[in-house]
Every structure is written in C-alpha cells, then in structure tokens.
Design goal:
The complex is a heterodimer of chains A (80) and B (224).
Chain A (H helix, E strand, L loop, with lengths): L1 E8 L6 H12 L12 E6 L5 H16 L5 E8 L1
Antiparallel strand pairs in A: 1-2, 1-3
Chain B lengths: L1 E6 L6 H9 L4 E6 L11 E4 L20 H10 L4 E4 L1 H8 L6 E3 L7 E9 L15 E8 L3 E3 L2 H9 L3 E6 L15 E5 L5 E4 L15 H10 L2
Parallel strand pairs in B: 1-2, 1-3, 3-4, 4-11
Antiparallel strand pairs in B: 5-8, 6-7, 6-9, 9-10, 10-11
Chain lengths: 80, 224
C-alpha cells in the first residue's frame, strides 16, 4: 500500500516560492495563471493492507513529523 | 559558570559559540546529540547554529527527535536556561518549546550580513543587562529566518512581553530583512527561561570583525 502526502503552506501564510514562480511564469509570457502554490510531496510505501489503518498511521506521522501544523496543511491519499 | 553546547550532525557554530563564551571566562562542555543527560552543573544550555541534519524536511525538524532532546525538555521543565541561536531557534520551535515557526525568507535568499536589532523587552534573565530600545549590531546568516505566528498567538506574545528583539536600522526604526511577522528576531517562552533568536551574538565579539555588541548580550545570558 502506498500513501501520497501533499504538504502546502496554510491559507493566509505567505507562500514566497509560489509568488516567485508566479512572477517567473508571467515573465515567460504564460498568461491566465491566477495563483501558484508550491508544496512538497512525500510518498510512503507501507506494509499495512487496511486503508483505514494506513491513513490513521500516516495522519499521526504528519502531525508528529511530516508537516509543521503551525504553518502547513497536509492531504493524504492512500493508493493500493 | 558552565555553558553546555549541543552538537547535532550538521551543527557548525558550536566552536565559535564555545570560543565566545570562553572569552568571558566560562567553562564549556560540548554535548553530542546522542547524550541522554545534561550535566547537573550546567548554568546555560545552548543549541548552536548550523544545519542540523542538513535542514532536511524542515530546518530543525529532525534534530527534535535526537535522544538529547528529551533531556532538553526535562531541563526546560525544571527551569533551566536554554538559548537557541539560529538553527537552535528553529529546533526549539519545531520541538514546541517556543511558539511559532520559521519559514523561508520572504525574498527566498540566504541572508548573511550585519543587522541592527532593538531590545523590545528586558524583563527576563537573558536581556536584563540591556535597556529597552537599546540597539545592537549583530550578524544574521539564515535562509529560514522568517518568523511566523498567527494573530492570536502574536497578541499572547505581546501581552506576556515575550518579544525580546526586533530587526531595525541603526537609528532604531523597524527594518525587516526577511519578512518576519512584526519584524521579530527573537522571542522567549512564557516562563522566560527559553530564548530563541535568529541573529548570531557569538559572531559579534571583536570590533575588528565589525561589532563587539555580542559581548554584552552574552554577558547578560550568563547573569542570574
């Protein structure tokens, strides 16, 4: 079983990298981009075969280490 | 006086910090992160600057799980004095010993230069030898020094006089190099025995090297 964790800065926390990328896209004449957010993706290979348990386990990992919940949000996708 | 300085893999300011405190007549113990105890006779525990664990995942995020950090937590609970400089500040926020978090600098650059700082509160053991509104010239050298805290917790910091230093220019006008909320450069915990700051006072010990304002700051840390 695989877990895909997407981590991004919370809404309201300024994403300087997203802003810089947005600006660069503009400089390259890519139009129609309203907003850019830069985050990170962590892919975990798990022994667990029960999706509910896997999600619970990965949620704990996010709370304790993978994300800093003061500034970041996370989303977990379990893929079998 | 004895100062104990923690070393994680990737810490690189421990010898500068040791040299600076030694020049003020203190005894130094360098403590590897695998240690399980902090010497009883420690007067000040310092988490020095650098790039613990290569700043992987987030600055300070992995160091927090080193064996020594449990002893650091116990030491803090007993009221022991802890100073976190730069990466040490990041480790303390990641460990939840100080509120807030340190984000990438707003301009995305690594900033390395002398910067002036203003003393905002001195009713704590760390800055009581300085006066409110004193201005010191101290080097900064960081990529992730952009202090973030939400509005409610910022009010809490203000109410408890936990904001100790802000970035300013040489005349004391607020001047923010990295995007920090409220231009904050250093804060302490509510109990005022843990102090974290991004600037490096241990690098301001010689006028020949630009400033010796670090001397009076470090002397203050050794008082009380």
């Amino acid at each position: 079983m695989k877990a895909i964790v997407n981590i991004s800065l919370k809404n309201g926390v300024l994403d300087s990298q997203g802003k810089a990328v947005h600006h660069a896209l503009g400089s390259l004449h890519f139009s129609g981009v309203d907003d850019v957010r830069v985050g990170k993706q962590i892919i975990l290979k798990l022994d667990e075969t029960d999706a509910t348990k896997a999600k619970e386990n990965v949620t704990n990992m996010c709370e304790e280490l993978l994300a800093n919940t003061v500034i970041e949000d996370y989303e977990i996708e379990i893929v079998s | 006086m004895k100062v104990t300085i923690l070393q994680f893999p990737g810490t690189n300011c421990e010898y500068d910090t040791a040299h600076a405190f030694e020049s003020l007549g203190t005894t130094i113990e360098l403590l590897w992160h695998k240690a399980k105890n902090i010497s009883q006779d420690t007067d000040l525990l310092v988490i020095a600057g650098g790039f613990s664990y290569g700043d992987y995942l987030r600055s300070g995020a992995i160091a927090r799980f080193s064996p020594v950090m449990k002893a650091v937590g116990d030491y803090a609970k007993k009221g022991g004095k802890i100073l976190g400089i730069c990466n040490g500040f990041q480790v303390l926020t990641e460990a939840g010993l100080l509120p807030g978090a340190l984000k990438r600098n707003e301009n995305l650059h690594f900033i390395s230069k002398h910067h002036h700082l203003k003393v905002i509160n001195n009713d704590n053991v760390f800055l009581e030898k300085l006066n409110k509104n004193d201005i010191v010239n101290i080097p900064i050298a960081h990529h992730d020094g952009n202090f973030y805290i939400d509005a409610n917790n910022l009010k809490e910091l203000e109410r408890n006089n936990q904001i100790l230093l802000k970035y300013c220019d040489k005349n004391g006008n607020i001047n923010n190099p990295n995007g920090s909320v409220d231009s904050i450069a250093g804060i302490c915990n509510k109990e005022k025995n843990i102090f974290g700051l991004m600037p490096h006072p241990e690098r301001a010990m010689e006028t020949l090297l630009g400033s010796d304002d670090g001397i009076k700051m470090l002397q203050g840390f050794l008082q009380a």
